[in-house]
Amino acid sequence: MPRPATGKQNASPREMEDTIRRFLSGCRDPVLVEPGEEPIPLEANRYTIESRGDSCVLHAWNESGNLVRRVTAIVRESRGKLEARARRFGTGEATLTLMDAARKSASLQRLAGPLQFREALRRMIARNFSDWRIEHLTAAADLEHSLSGLYARGVLRRGQQAWAVIGAAAEMGSAVCDQILTFGLIWLEQARRQRPGAMSGLLVLLPHGHTRATANRLAFLRRDTLQFWLHEFDAKGHLASLDERDFGNLHTELLPCRPAPEPVEPVAGWVRQFLEVPGVEALAGTDGLISLRVRGLGFAQAGSGVLACGLDELRPVTVERLPRALTLARELARFRSANAADRLNPLYRKYPESWLESQVRRDVRVIDPTLRTGPVYTHPLSIAGADRGIIDLLACDHHGRLAVLELKATEDIHLPLQGLDYWLRVKWHLDRGDFQLRGYFPGIELSSQPPRILLVSPGVEFHPTTETLLRYFPPEVEVERVGIGEDWRRELRVVFRKLGAGRLA
């Protein structure tokens, strides 16, 4: 069973040295792995560990090169694996992993994957951009600048012209490929700071079949500040440029909004009993069902003549099962409360975005006084293959202008571009009159103005790169960051508002 490195987060350099030496003494085939770098076997007489100053210096070398890192903290230790934070000399933070290759061959191969793709990308660029020179290419994580080690990135140069480049491997999966533009824009900004006036734009390289999300996003970003190429590659490394005229072709669907049912007896009486439990709320969904929830956590669904209850599996409620269902509701209300004594309980911690949604729904005007209190729709659109961990709400103001609310209870580097994903789909359906054709916002004349985006999160949870990403949004994509207090479970209050990419004071 994995065991945490108890107390090692604040360990002294000597304690870190002792921990590393003890770990290595128990390995048959120790290897040092840093994402984006060649794994280095830790053979006898080919590495040193020394406590020095406020850190522990680890130096390892082989025929291919050497690596020197200042270990600043032991993050965790499990059987056959030790993870540590470290600093490169003069170039920021790094993550180190010490492994027993005799027991962790699959994990070692996974960690070395970005390095292999970096070299594949180098060959692709040399074959397809023969008149360009690779000035820089790496797959190492750069935690200081929020750059992931899942992507290879670099700089291409031809004469006075330079382009930032970023790529992802098909083996990394659809989610990693879909998120590449977040890190691509961050990398472009860093490259521009390092080479003022020299960077022309961003080249994005993705495997065949994984370009749609990036193409959709690029279609709605600023062209005056962002030049880009989007290429896809096949299994043999051949590149093909995507036609910008095909960008923004969305696959999106807006399901009809069905009216809420009117429960009949005995279901109507059972629903009333649930609503007498403090904290229980009823939410009419667009699917024609009523969801019973405790601060965002659903535990029952009601139709006109049926009621089903359960956390992991919904089961029909009968007269005999009703007391047990009511007990479940009371237990949820006790554990899922701002005053709960046990805040580590899974029921308290589960689905924080849903809890935040319930707070916002109580009076959406706290987030924006211009918004109507209703109707407010949750996830009226679906984004294929995306488990975003974000609550999407769709509301409108008193002038009929739509507003997309993206709710996130914890820090998420992808929040701005995920908000753009939803905005562009809402705009697509708005332009075609789909919302009122399918029964949304009855009796309200919707404005033809583009929707607004409200990014709602605790003030301290907005990722530092949010402003960088928002600088690439055009004026017609109106974005406002709404920072709420950390104690939002108890009281929802706004602590700051900021339009667009403006810096917070």
Could you please describe the fold and organization of this structure?
The protein has 505 residues and is of the alpha+beta class. It is 25% helix and 29% strand. The chain contains 12 helices and 24 strands. It has helices at residues 13-25, 105-128, 174-178, 180-194, 212-218, 267-275, 322-335, 346-349, 352-362, 415-431, 434-437, 466-470; strands at 30-33, 40-41, 47-52, 55-62, 65-78, 81-88, 92-100, 133-138, 152-158, 161-167, 199-207, 228-233, 239-241, 280-284, 290-294, 297-302, 307-309, 315-316, 377-378, 391-396, 402-407, 452-458, 478-484, 494-499. The strands form 4 sheets. Strands 2-1-7-6-5-4-3 form a 7-stranded antiparallel β-sheet, with helices on both faces.
Keywords:
Protein Yojf, Chain: A, 4 domains, 505 residues, alpha+beta, Trna Endonuclease, Chain: A, domain 1, 29% strand
